[in-house]
Write a structure and sequence with these properties.
The termini are close together. The protein has a six-stranded antiparallel beta sheet with strand order 1-2-3-9-8-5. The longest helix has 8 residues. It has a single domain, classed as OB fold (Dihydrolipoamide Acetyltransferase, E2P). 18% of the residues lie in helices and 35% in strands. With 125 residues, it is of the alpha+beta class.
Length: 125
């Protein structure tokens, strides 16, 4: 299972890559493998400011629908347009082309509550 060391993680299987006061968010390789074939992603929160752990969208696979949670609070400044027409890219490239949203972080101290790669590996066993 791929768990890049340069990212932070949540127990809900989101990853976050921080660059200054902005961050890119997606779901982990573990999450996409558990979901199976992803067929649809719904994110309608662009321009909204959401709190940590608030739902920013949902992801639909053949067998289930799952909510997507904010790892930290912030304003959703961009949604990955590629995933609308090609949601299966999340299955093939969860940490690259399959990213979900970019946010402007409200409170960088919330990053301290996230998991390191090693801590996340413990969560997924």
């Amino acid at each position: 299972m791929n768990v890049p060391a340069d990212l932070k993680y949540t127990k809900d299987h989101e990853w976050i890559k921080v660059e200054g006061d902005t961050a890119t968010i997606g779901i982990t390789d573990f999450a996409q493998s558990e979901l199976g074939d992803i067929v649809y992603v719904e994110i309608e929160t662009e321009g909204e400011t959401l709190d940590k752990e608030e739902v920013f969208g949902s992801i639909e696979a053949v067998k289930t629908v799952s909510d997507l949670f904010m790892p930290v609070g912030g304003e959703v400044i961009e949604i990955n347009g590629e995933i609308e027409s090609n949601p299966e890219v999340i299955n093939s490239d969860a940490y690259g082309a399959g990213w979900l949203i970019k946010i402007k972080i409200s409170d960088t101290s919330e990053l301290d509550d996230l998991l390191t790669a090693d801590a996340y590996k413990d969560v997924i066993g």
